[in-house]
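User: Um, what's this?
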Amino acid sequence: MTVSFDFTGKTLLLTGAAGGIGREITALFYDAGANLVLLDMDDAALKDIAAGHDPAGERIAIMKMDSSSVADIDAALALAKDRFGGVDYLMPAAGIYPEQLVESMTDEQWRQVMTINLDGVFFLLKRALPIMRDGGAIVNFASLAGHRGSYGHSHYAATKAAIISLTKTLTLELGPRIRVNAISPGIIETRMTGDLLRTRGEQLVSSTPLGRNGQASEVATVSAFLCSTAASFVAGEVIHVNGGLFMAG
């Protein structure tokens, strides 16, 4: 797929950068000229990603970050300001997707998902606003589960439904200075969905009008569109990237 964007001189801050979708977003934005602040718990993966794209370290800054840690978030934002003067595009893509039925879920399991998938997003968004430049864009990551629920993933689904509402509220509060939108991926072939694809892959493909699973690159291009001038009048939207599975379901 060939899609052209120009983000020269702009800076993207991305959490979950070592994940499947995060890697594709990194590659697309780097090729489009952006500076990147890449954050993830997997420090070794971040170093490999940065070395593969920007061995001189001119346009990529990396930091190991726990998305639930306010101290780590503050340090990451200080890095973005010191290296690139601020942030134009913000994408909190870090998240976890454990499986656990409600009846056997512990309070600690519920709280862990809430802390990483929701609290961490709020902590980052709130603290990033002072260093976000006018005309910037926030792209949040919801999920098909946030609209339909997900068997065995009530905590995950609940956080993603909250992200949808948070996106709409931020649109009201931050416009016209910053546009806020969200993406709801469906079944995307990444490490995170590996177990799901092994157990229900054929069923899910048969239920999807396009007859296949999605690729991480197909989410990345939508994230770039939402940051680009092509989406200059798009705000408060949740873009489904699921091959029609949401509609068909």
Q: What stands out?
A: Strands lie at 11-15, 35-40, 60-64, 87-92, 132-141, 178-185, 238-241. The first strand starts at residue 11 and ends at 15. The first helix runs from residue 20 to 31.
